[in-house]
Fold this protein.
Amino acid sequence: MSRIGKKPIPLPGGVKVQIGEQLEVSGPKGKLTVPIPPGITVRQADGKLEIQRAGDEQAALHGLTRALAANAVQGVSGGFTRELDIVGIGYRAEVKGRVATYTLGYSHPIEFLLPEGVDMKVDKVAGTAIANLQARLVLSGRDRQLLGQVAANIRALRKPDPYKNKGVRYTGETLRKKVGKTGASAK
């Protein structure tokens, strides 16, 4: 039996769950829905959600449904954050409303529309271990999948360069810097 699927999901205070064709989770940060596949049942007992399956045919969906439900519960109660670093001289980011503007070494600034439910904050950073760190982007939202996709799209605007270590990277992401070409050695 799935170890992940067997774990009950504790419901924090202020989180309400409605079980039907879909699992609807609402809390202080908003409302999320989780699809319930056939053969999977969800029941609420003494402040916990339990996910059960009908047979071994639904083994793969058992853990998946439990993970999606746990992410929804955590998202509507506390939310998720994802941090990115902008590294490079002259690289910048600004946020005005739902539009983020990036200057990432191209001939033009890049405008990125943030989807509904994802907020971004730009922190100017000085004196860190990473050389040329210009700014730290803090993305926050209630939907973990949407937040991760937005972070990946922002990182794709200027992927980290393995030769110069410049670009947009996740905070804590380690890059192995390549040596590059050396001069032609004459014998």
User: Anything to note?
Assistant: The helical segments are 3-6, 59-77, 144-157. The CA atoms of residues 128 and 175 lie 16 Å apart.
